[in-house]
Amino acid sequence: MSAGSLAIVGLGPGPHELMTFEADAAIRSASDLVGYGPYLDRLPALPEQKRHASDNRVEIDRARQALDLALGGARVAVVSGGDPGVFAMAAAVFEAVERGDPRWRDLDIEIHPGVSAMLAVAARLGAPLGHDFAVISLSDNLKPWDAIARRLTAAAQADFVMALYNPASKARPHLIHDVFKLLRGLKAPETIVAFARAVNRPDERIELTTLGAADPSVADMSTLVLIGSSATRRVTRGNGGFWVYSPRSYGDMR
Amino acid sequence: MSAGSLAIVGLGPGPHELMTFEADAAIRSASDLVGYGPYLDRLPALPEQKRHASDNRVEIDRARQALDLALGGARVAVVSGGDPGVFAMAAAVFEAVERGDPRWRDLDIEIHPGVSAMLAVAARLGAPLGHDFAVISLSDNLKPWDAIARRLTAAAQADFVMALYNPASKARPHLIHDVFKLLRGLKAPETIVAFARAVNRPDERIELTTLGAADPSVADMSTLVLIGSSATRRVTRGNGGFWVYSPRSYGDMR
């Protein structure tokens, strides 16, 4: 049997138009698609293409399944929403490779990047990531609070804009409240905060607020939370709405 | 004259295949393209489409030009390499809007995100951004060293992976050396470092090394520098090469 291949593909934030041409081609040329069910459901059904849908909580098992299919000769595409390299399938695949079947190391593995959620959210708001920023995932049940708090504190003290992925967890419903409590002790109440849910999808909802006024309980599993730096600011639009941006210069840095 | 519009468009890292369908459509439907000359040169010439090429060092002037063209009724696309929201044209446009002609606030401004350089570099290497990371630009001549050092120190002490944009500056040739000197005092010599130049372009060159062994002078204006966390690791490929990834869990965090 000829050697298979594994493509790790970023679908972007949702609609097909925000996928790259390369990602689209990688998916079309695959014999087997592996991924979380709702991501596979975004893709058009192609004849003779097999689908292997799985639950979102078993990334490492999904990675192993994809690697085994490729080893068996399949042209496999494993898909992620957003970019596969940011808190997504690419790291899971390499964790599996490092610990698993030595033959997986011989496979042809390619990664096709995508527009990550933070970039899609930033594009909706204006340019909040126009200056230095830190990207932190709150999702993993294995993460000790001390480690999360240490990174949030460092990011706040050095005045980074922050993009917080996966802010809600069924296992830890109080986590996002603890995060806001910590940040309120470190940053000014007028700091700009945005809760951006399902950006670019039909159920998109963006709430622009401040650190002092924010209600963290609006953050669910589909929400990305943006926390401004001291320089992040709003510009009033002619229609009464706002753009949010972070100036490119350090001049305004606290 | 009918109202014009302004699209701020991310071209991705280089080849057309890494652009999104939406970005491609926004460029094709524009009457006027504004951007740094080499970015405009990547795009196919369309009849009746005007091009306004400019020098890279005048982003704010380019933003004002694009806004004025839109105010005059043009369908303007201003282009950035990578994603326009990450150290690029989107922030320049909103800086111009905030300080400029009040009528600019009434314009229809849309941002079309793209695959940023850090995501393209990560896809080439494996999954180095698979865990929390900080994104820092070293380019701006206005940046005081103290501010840069403060952010690098915070990112190192909280063990973020780091993506450093614009590491080389003609005005400050010693900056990248100062950055490495600082990081060597804060992080282990075996920390993984990658210099990724012109990724996805014909002159791509990636050097994978360690903090202790790195020669920072290889970084030029087209290079993105990745600095691993303490958990970032290499996996040997069957062909003798390496993948680089950062595990998803905090388990290995220092």
TrEMBL record, chains A, B:
InterPro entries found in the cross-reference section: 4pyrrol_Mease, 4pyrrol_Methylase_sf, 4pyrrole_Mease_sub1, 4pyrrole_Mease_sub2, Cbl_synth_CobJ/CibH_dom, Precorrin_MeTrfase
Pathway: Cofactor biosynthesis; adenosylcobalamin biosynthesis
Source superkingdom: Bacteria
Residues of the Tetrapyrrole methylase domain: 6-214
UniProt GO BP: cobalamin biosynthetic process; methylation
Keywords per UniProt: Cobalamin biosynthesis, Methyltransferase, S-adenosyl-L-methionine, Transferase
GO molecular function: methyltransferase activity
PANTHER family: COBALT-FACTOR III C(17)-METHYLTRANSFERASE-RELATED
The protein's name in its UniProt record: Precorrin-3B C17-methyltransferase
